[in-house]
Amino acid sequence: MIYLIDNSNNDYHQHTITEMFKLRFKVFGQTLKWDVKEKNGLEIDDYDHEHTNYLVYTDSLGRVKGCLRFIEMVHPCMFDGPFQFALKNLHDFKRKDYWELSRLAIDQDIDENYTNEEMQLVGIKLLQAYMLFGLELQKIECTLTIGYPQVIQFYKEQGLIFESLNKICLNAQTNEIIEVAAFPTLNYCYDQYALKSQLSSKSNVFWYMCPIAKEFSALT
Amino acid sequence: MITYITPDLYEQHRDLLKQSYQLRYRVFCEKKQWDISAENGQEKDEYDEKNMHYLIYQDDDGIVRGCLRFIEMIHPCMLEGPFNFALPNVKDFKKKGYWESTRFAIEPNHHNTNIARLFLAKLIEIGLSNQEYIEGFFGISFPSVKRLFNKYGLFTFDINTISIDQDTTCIWLFPPMHLSLEKLLRN
Question: Nearest C-alpha of chain A: how many angstroms from B13?
């Protein structure tokens, strides 16, 4: 199940949010050994703020196994901060309907309730949910993201249409390269991901807790 | 002046369309010497005037100096005809919202160097205005043309690169984006 969490409903998802920050520390701090902020085993930074949205994937036992966050670029985002060197024409993208996607994390620890097959689809399902958000809930003209080229290439091969905007070498010795890429929100891309995830019904792609009705509702 | 001709307006703009076919003949048959069908000094093919939309630029004397055409890909189009090797998964784009833009012609050596920029801005504007449902336009051109359009401010997404008669040709998509429109109008 994928939950859409934003400022209006995060009160209802405190446990899920905490588990998400734990997963982020596990993936980015412990596995990838990025120099991220950590407190009590949680990875939280300056861009987890009131304008930040999350999609969080849980397995059949309700355990958080994947997440991503996205911020409309009119608000503070990573391109303003740690990645301000990554995009020369950042001001072009600091506008309504242009979003930054970051912190895509997938738990690699599989077990009998979270199989390798399921794990392979977590990123696809999260991005499918993100595109549905961009197509039907909030207009997203373009998304900017930063990632390792091989990760961007993987999602491109699954059907996202990326345009590379920049490539930066972070560490010449280890040849650590990151890529800045943009992708539009297109029904074509959504359909490609829906084929891969086998989630054809839009009403099952993610769930959103409506804070007024105080009940979960499917997208449609 | 740019005139936008939708399928219901072909007869109303018969003379403009005829002039645009003549311009295409001058550009594609005479100057570029493409191997395409032409008759009576006009370049017109089986895709013309069948659900096709046109943008036509006239100078101050009313003479047609630039044109392009675009069609929603639910209809027969060049990407499933003569260019069917350019987009291997063309069937995935045979749906509402995806358009093909072709036959972009500008009078050789014409003094108004802004015609291409105005055409691109007009395309984006049509997409953003919801006059038509447009998620993206496909363009097919030499890389130099795409680079020029990028320089003008058009934000494009590369789809494929192929070789036609030993010339590198690229296929790219440009969604209607406010970023593109502002830059095209500002530059």
Answer: 34
Buried b (16+ CB within 10 A) or exposed e, B77-90: bbbbeebeebbeeb
Alpha-carbon span A136 to A138, nearest angstrom: 6
Assembly ipTM:
0.90
Domain residues for the domain of B66 are: 2-186
Q: Distance from CA of residue A163 to its chain's centroid?
A: 18
Phi first, then psi: give them for residue B11, nearest 5 degrees. Answer: -65, -35
DSSP string for B93-117: G-STTEEEEEEEEE-TT-S-TTHHH
Nearest residue of chain A to residue B156 (CA atoms): A163
Q: How many CB pairs under 8 A join A and B?
A: 45
Q: How many distinct structural domains can be found in chain B? A: 1
pLDDT, tens digit only, all 187 positions of chain B: 999 999 999 999 999 999 999 999 999 999 999 888 899 999 999 999 999 999 999 999 999 999 999 999 999 999 999 999 999 899 999 999 999 999 999 998 887 779 999 999 999 999 999 889 999 999 999 999 999 999 999 999 999 999 887 889 999 999 999 999 999 998 6
Domain containing B120 — which CATH number? 3.40.630.30
- CA B29/CA B105 separation, integer angstroms: 11
Minimum CA–CA partner of B128 in chain A: A141
SS3 label, residue B62: coil
Q: How is chain A split into domains, by residue range?
A: 2-218
Is the domain covering A2-218 a CATH 3.30.460.80 domain?
A: no
| B173 chain-A contacts, CB cut-off 8 A | 161, 184
